[in-house]
TrEMBL record:
Family: Belongs to the XseA family.
This protein's encoding gene: xseA
Signal peptide: none
Subunit structure: Heterooligomer composed of large and small subunits.
Protein name in the entry: Exodeoxyribonuclease 7 large subunit
Entry EC number(s): 3.1.11.6
Predominant localisation class: cytoplasm
One Pfam family in the UniProt entry: Exonuc_VII_L
Amino acid sequence: MSDLIDDPRPGQNLPEYTVSEVSGAVKKTLEDQFGRIRVRGEVGRVFTARSGHLYYDVKDDRNVLACTTWKGQVSSLSVVPEEGLEVVVTGRMTAFGGQSKYNLNVDEVTVAGEGALMAMLEKRKKALAAEGLFDPARKKELPYLPDIIGVITSPSGAVIRDILHRLRDRFPRKVLIWPVAVQGAACAPEVARAITGFNALTPGGALPRPDLLIVARGGGSIEDLWGFNEEIVARAAAASEIPLISAVGHETDTTLIDYVSDQRAPTPTAAAEIAVPVRLELLGWVGDQQARMTRAVSQRMQTRDQRLRDLARALPRPDALLSGPTQRLDLMADRLPRALTRTVDLRRGRLVEAAASLRPSLLSRALAEQRRRFDQSATRLAPGLTRVVETKREALARRADRLSVKPIERDLASKRDRLEALTRRLSSAGQAQVKDWQSRLTALDRLRETLGYKETLKRGYAVVRGDGAVVTTQVAAQKATALEIEFADGRMTVGAAVAKPSTKAKPKPPEQGSLF
């Protein structure tokens, strides 16, 4: 009876749950209780899995909340979590029963306050500066007058209108516009693709590659301009082969693209002013330079002409130069016959004196003495020559064993190679000199044609001849019985007998002052 009335052991009537049931109930409770929430904290450990899913922690001074952003959600994030960044994350609470963990599935990340944005910007700036992307040595020089300008900005708004208006006022150029979003999540990837796309164009192709790029946007808050602080935009601008001007925001606004661009403009309008010079000012400068050059050449010619005249006055007359030599020639011509006569008489006297001392007997004795000495020398010459020949033969026999033709052949081959090299060099030098002479001869012939009076006739001038002489005054023309006028394409006669214009007659060069 006691067993029937005793109480059961404590907990014996509680229901039993499976592990999956408990995990599912916890997950459902979390998702129902919290729903979609916003959490503020500092980003801790960040890990990107091979699958593309993003795992990171959001923490405060006491606790840590695990967060997950799936691969398909990462591309829609306006800010990618970075360790140490203070953010506000938005998502739904969920639990993962496989590890008895709960986490926040985040689909939106924003920076918590302007101070955090500036801290992240400063961090990126230091990292890019350490890589040398801000180095002035790598910045390219802007073209003085680009033919085509590429503008990366929003197609609507006052920025593009200001740039086009300013370019039209200063120096009209061809403009290619690449429309992009200038704020929001799509800003950074679209601007980076636009810079890369312009650089990928082929120079001179159907859509030619610009000579200069302008990235422009109006002013705004740091959040509005944040797309131009993204690392992808800074790296695309640094890698651009086309010189790039950044004109983002107003003069007080500064973004990362300003540091990596080849030149920063305080406003979009200022970018257009930097891109091209003022056409009217350029034309005025060219005109001034042309006038200065004309004056300088004219003054130079006048100076040289005056110097030539001064030197001509300092030179003596030709007849004065020849008067002295002419007189000396006449004097020598008068003295020459007498000098020849005296010389012949003197030589004749010496010959007579020498002939008087020559007798046949003396010559016979001298010849006999020379013959005797020759015979004595001949008797001694044969044995001496024999001994010398034997000595030379023995010396040659001793040295013949040591003689070899190979050194001589090597020396001949070396000398032959040097001779061929010198021959080639001489031939090349001769050909080069002949070409140079031909070029100079061609240039002088062109100069002759240019300076000839025929070129002057082609500009509308003519040569007037009267009675076979060139006419330079009205009085001479009135006195002539007939006038012949030579034009660039032929001649014609005015007066007694009018002849048809002739283009085959070879004209004589006109005298100075005969062109009109």
